[in-house]
From TrEMBL:
<dbReference type="InterPro" id="IPR015421">
    <property type="entry name" value="PyrdxlP-dep_Trfase_major"/>
</dbReference>
<keyword id="KW-0032">Aminotransferase</keyword>
<keyword id="KW-0663">Pyridoxal phosphate</keyword>
<dbReference type="GO" id="GO:0030170">
    <property type="term" value="F:pyridoxal phosphate binding"/>
</dbReference>
<dbReference type="GO" id="GO:0005829">
    <property type="term" value="C:cytosol"/>
</dbReference>
<dbReference type="GO" id="GO:0070189">
    <property type="term" value="P:kynurenine metabolic process"/>
</dbReference>
<comment type="similarity">
    <text>Belongs to the class-I pyridoxal-phosphate-dependent aminotransferase family.</text>
</comment>
<dbReference type="GO" id="GO:0047316">
    <property type="term" value="F:glutamine-phenylpyruvate transaminase activity"/>
</dbReference>
<dbReference type="GO" id="GO:0005739">
    <property type="term" value="C:mitochondrion"/>
</dbReference>
<dbReference type="Pfam" id="PF00155">
    <property type="entry name" value="Aminotran_1_2"/>
</dbReference>
<comment type="pathway">
    <text>Amino-acid degradation; L-kynurenine degradation; kynurenate from L-kynurenine: step 1/2.</text>
</comment>
<keyword id="KW-0808">Transferase</keyword>
<comment type="subunit">
    <text>Homodimer.</text>
</comment>
<dbReference type="GO" id="GO:0016212">
    <property type="term" value="F:kynurenine-oxoglutarate transaminase activity"/>
</dbReference>
<dbReference type="InterPro" id="IPR051326">
    <property type="entry name" value="Kynurenine-oxoglutarate_AT"/>
</dbReference>
<keyword id="KW-0963">Cytoplasm</keyword>
<protein>
    <recommendedName>
        <fullName>Kynurenine--oxoglutarate transaminase 1</fullName>
        <ecNumber>2.6.1.64</ecNumber>
        <ecNumber>2.6.1.7</ecNumber>
        <ecNumber>4.4.1.13</ecNumber>
    </recommendedName>
</protein>
Length: 455
């Protein structure tokens, strides 16, 4: 009868309105086996997803997520328009999988001088879909089950889940703050590694250490002495260094960015990671790269060719032209890299003044376009809940978004679970913003302080 009527079993039960039978049918067709891969366990939450959604829900001034709301420099935009609007039709097609020839060539020339190495563009440079893919390739290619990876806290939040997805074990060591000089604001330079504590994290299972200088979220620029300490331990224990240097051109107050791969014994064991998004304020282009010895990069190429395989050709061409301009102007006042640091230092100082006037205690960064601020003084306005599983900084920012219209990111997101509560009185602001955005934030902070003081 069922066959003659042309009805499926499900349609038959639905026609008969036999709910019990239809429920039985649906339950039998649902998958019951676990589909999630074990490597995804515990890495599903992401601070950016949560707070970007919240910022979009309310009218806000967004100093949270680290993207510029100002345009890239004109020469960068012109290079991109030329790439997509010019006569070279091949710029709309696939290019070399491991990096557009024009881009890997200029990157090898540019960074070869800075690293003191003769870089082969075909073997010592790999172009990736942003620094994010560069990091992913590092962990997938070089970290195995049972390997330990040292991560310096605070750390960019993707390091920990990427280690875990590769089967490795993250091992944490903290930058510890020292008291600022009397009458002065704390600086990111006041946060330092304890040499003995760092040395204790290196074991026979240590495969790699992740170094981020200048550091996000703190803005710390590691000194030469700190770099040499890390380098000596890497050499002693035969450990690889993943050096995340995406903010290399954003350094203030005469500080020097030290490339750890340039130190003795480190070129052969370091993968240096860079980003055109951070370098040229083009985060949406998603062009990144890795630099390093072929003995390491060949394994990253294997991951890249079996996952992403290829990066957008036109964007790579535009970045290549932008780097050529910077190579011609390197060290000169016309250099965009020089002008960028000068412009952002002024924006940093502006935001520092605004936060101080608003009653917060900023930690002045030596680099990056982020700064952390202490909001302990606001606990009378936004009380802490000791029995809450949610860190205080996360709840504070949600309250601030809804009630004040100002967005930041909780610093506890940049710490491992055991250490989150120790730093949840800190929040992170981004200041690579238009003057109008910073002025709007200043107005919010001033009004907030007036309300708080009853003036």
């Amino acid at each position: 009868m069922l066959r003659r009527s042309g009805l499926s079993l499900g349609q038959y039960f639905l026609r008969r309105k036999n709910r019990a039978g239809f429920s039985w049918y649906l339950n039998k067709t649902k998958m019951s086996r676990l589909v999630q891969a074990r490597r995804l366990e515990g890495v599903d939450k992401n601070v950016w997803v949560e707070f970007v959604k919240l910022a979009a829900t309310y009218p806000t001034v967004n100093l949270g997520q680290g993207f510029p709301d100002l345009p890239p420099p004109d020469f960068v935009k012109e290079a991109f328009m030329k790439a997509v609007g010019g006569e070279n039709i091949m710029l709309h097609q696939y290019t070399r999988a491991f990096g557009h020839p024009a881009l890997v060539t200029i990157l090898a020339r540019f960074f070869g001088k800075l690293l003191g190495q003769e870089l082969d563009p075909l073997t010592n440079v790999l172009v990736t879909v942003g620094a994010y893919e560069a990091l992913f390739c590092c962990f997938q290619a070089l970290v195995d089950e049972g390997d330990e990876v040292i991560i310096i806290e605070p750390f960019f939040d993707c390091y920990q889940p990427m280690v875990k997805m590769a089967g490795g074990t993250p091992v944490f060591v903290q930058l510890r703050p020292k008291a600022a000089e009397a009458g002065k604001l704390m600086s990111s330079g006041d946060w330092q590694l304890d040499p003995a504590e760092l040395a204790s994290r290196f074991t026979e299972r240590t495969k790699a250490i992740v170094l981020n200088s200048p550091n996000n979220p703190l803005g710390k620029v590691f000194t030469r002495e700190e770099m040499e300490l890390i380098a000596d331990l890497c050499v002693k224990h035969d450990v690889v260094c993943f050096s995340d240097e995406v903010y290399e051109w954003v350094v203030y107050d005469g500080k020097e960015h030290i490339r750890i791969a340039s130190l003795p014994g480190m070129w052969d064991r370091t993968i240096t990671i860079g980003s055109a998004g951070k370098t040229f304020s083009t985060t949406g282009w998603k062009v990144g790269w890795t630099l390093g010895p072929d003995r390491l990069l060949k394994h990253l190429r294997t991951v890249h060719q079996n996952s992403v395989y290829h990066c957008p050709t036109a964007a790579q061409e535009a970045v290549a032209q932008a780097f050529q301009r910077e190579l011609d102007n390197y060290g000169k006042q016309d250099s965009y890299f020089v002008q960028l640091a000068q412009e952002l230092q002024q924006k940093r100082d502006w935001l520092v003044r605004s936060l101080v006037a608003g009653g917060m205690k900023p930690i002045v960064p030596e680099g990056t376009y982020f700064l952390m601020a202490d909001v302990s003084e606001f606990k009378s306005e936004v009380p802490d809940l000791l029995d809450s599983d949610e860190p205080y900084d996360s709840r504070f920012i949600k309250w601030m978004i809804i009630n004040k219209g100002l967005v930041a990111i909780p610093v506890s997101a940049f710490y491992s679970t055991p250490h989150k509560r120790n730093f949840d009185h800190l929040i992170r602001f981004c200041f690579v913003k238009e003057e109008a955005t910073l002025k709007a934030a200043e107005d919010i902070l001033q009004q907030w302080n007036l309300e708080k003081t009853g003036q």
